Amino acid sequence: MTDRGSSAEQRLRATGTAYVRATVVRAQPPTSALPGDSAVVLADGTIDGFVGGQCASGSVRVAALTALRDREPMLLRILPDSSSPFPDVPGAHLVVNPCLSGGAIEVFLEPQLPAPAVRVVGGSPIARAVRQIAPLVGLELADEDGGRAATAVVIATHGGDEAATIRAAVADGAGYVGLVASQRRGAAVLAETGLTETELTRVHSPAGLAIGARSAPEIALAIVGEIVRELRTGGLDVPAGEPAPVRQAVDPVCGMTVVVGADTPRLSVGDEEFFFCGPGCRDRYAAKVGA
To answer: Quick one: 117-233 is in which CATH superfamily?
Structure first.
């Protein structure tokens, strides 16, 4: 059993990058993959790790991009032909890859999306309490000076140019912006922002659920609770970055869909360029066309 994707996953999580964890859960000889072999697949189709030979990896690459797009896990069954005596699993996504050198594998594809990140602006007791409570419910803290995109921004400065801070948070794409202020002062600050009515729907002032909070920890709890409510029921999304455009092509020999990348086997015939799941298909096509 291997864990080849662990170091890569640590780097991806640290940068808030979406990816797919691919793990071989069943393998039938003579496939080169073993149960427990794993890899990570990025949004551009790059694979880091091992989940089988080039043909099997190609099938994993294509299916992983679908799982990442849909944000849903997938059990992928890769068979050398449709009559392969590999026990069926209801609900699995089946791919027949005629280029496999025999055997069959099942790979579990699990999208790993960035955890919601909260940027807390200010050094007040409420701000410090939000920073303490947020990680307890799975929220990550984003640097106040930028870096990773924040799902939510909490402004607990109790003064300063709060209107400018709100505008910047909205412009950066935060789906939740919470202003710690009284209802009267908050209304005055929002009037200074110049935001549209649509943009103002993302701004919560006073920030936090109405739980009768009085102390700084209670107010912080109300704010974190409001962020969680928006994530679970309010449609607040976690920015995962725009996926890079991915080019796909159909192997003219075996009919498999392949992701075109720097390492994709290819062949130029006249003015056309063809892409293949592996060197075997490329060589067969080259022999066919006399290239």
So the answer is: NAD(P)-binding Rossmann-like Domain (3.40.50.720)
